[in-house]
Amino acid sequence: MRVTIAGAGAVGRSIAGELLENGHEVLLVDKAPTAISVERVPQAEWLLADACEITSLDEAALQRCNVVIAATGDDKVNLVVSLLAKTEYGVPRVVARVNNPKNEWLFNESWGVDVAVSTPRLMSALVEEAVSVGDLVRLLRFSHGDANLVELTLPPESALAGTPVGDVAWPEDTSLVTIIRGPRVLTPHDEETLEPGDELLFVAAQAREEQLEDLLSVRREGPTATG
């Protein structure tokens, strides 16, 4: 997979390093000469250019990219890069960094953004996750379909503890993506049994989040699963 990252600061370089370790091709673009630190990510391609200019994006061959990540420290720049990547080059996946939470409402499909990543939101989510078993934590917002990536740690008193995944009557517009159990990352097969302390990651419509939280967190009278 070929990925272009606009913004070669600490965030952009960190993302580049992770992607390179996973075998992807990465191009880092930044207009500041001081940001071009090839020795820090030597496996990446580097381009000294303004990612808000069409000529620069032509040089970056954005039409060949599978993913563009707008990771600068300026929300205006990230929005422009996202819009150009989607509308001018048809990049299939555009991920944008949100620096100021007040601007988060702008980062949607109208600006070409598929996934908006708010660092303050992620940090607060991690704090919430660390102290609140049983509470749903919203990690990422996907602009298409009004869906979110959400996490919930299954409490010991949950009625679903000990229930196979395939027997649970999940809410509509909800998909269990991953189960994190200690150091293990599990694919949620129908036969996999939910255990107390499991971290469950879902892609869910926002309108279903409360229903999902109720299903997982509360020990109820009567059955909570089908099958």
TrEMBL record:
Q: Where is the RCK C-terminal domain?
A: 137-218
**Carries keyword NAD?**
yes
Taxonomy, top ranks, is: Bacteria, Bacillati, Actinomycetota, Actinomycetes, Kitasatosporales
Boundaries of each RCK N-terminal domain copy?
Answer: 1-117
Query: What name does UniProt use for this protein?
Result: Trk system potassium uptake protein TrkA
Annotated signal sequence range = none
Q: Which organism is it from?
A: Streptomyces pacificus
Keywords attached to this Swiss-Prot or TrEMBL record, sorted alphabetically, are: Ion transport, NAD, Potassium, Potassium transport, Transport
Question: Which InterPro entries did the record assign?
Answer: K_uptake_TrkA, NAD(P)-bd_dom_sf, RCK_C, RCK_C_sf, RCK_N, Trk_Ktr_HKT_K-transport
The Gene Ontology terms for molecular function here are: potassium ion transmembrane transporter activity
Any one GO CC term of this protein is: plasma membrane
PANTHER family assigned to the protein according to its UniProt record, in alphabetical order: POTASSIUM CHANNEL PROTEIN 2-RELATED-RELATED, TRK SYSTEM POTASSIUM UPTAKE PROTEIN TRKA
